[in-house]
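Sample intake — Protease
Collected from: Geobacillus subterraneus
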Amino acid sequence: MMSKKVLIITGDAVEALEVYYPYYRLLEEGHDVTIAAPKKKKLHTVVHDFADWDTYVEKQAYLIDAHASFAEIDPTEYDALVIPGGRAPEYIRLDENVQRIVRHFFEANKPIAAICHASLIFETMPEVLKGRSLTAYIACKPGVEALGATYVSDRTVHVDGNLVSAHAWPDLPAFMREFLRLLQ
């Protein structure tokens, strides 16, 4: 497989496994991977897990370097996009550069991987999902449907054209397998 340039967009409070697993899996395949965030800095990751609660609990996890800021990113230089979940999508979606970057990947029909709460980013640009189908963390279902998209609930990983989506970190092996197929 030919090496591709892949962009990961995220920020503080990204789900640790959802950024680390794709990052290292893509490096393992020989791809050039850039992690972009609001600022070039060390990002704080988190672990969301169920601990006998009705919803998830959050714990601090590892640090990971953001190689570039969103403002520095020229999306035309990248072949594919990964959007991890956690709480990061909730606030990075407000960054106009994130919207510029994400729109480019949809308009250019380049591979996009979105997992867990990543669908929150699409709420600031509803036109990108109109008539599409995807899956996400179940709490994101109302937002996905409000965008005019179909929420897929009968499987944890879903592919709709250039978009691979998944429920959460337990789905990472199948999620990355489908994303790597799109990269070929």
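Post-analysis note: The mean pLDDT is 96.
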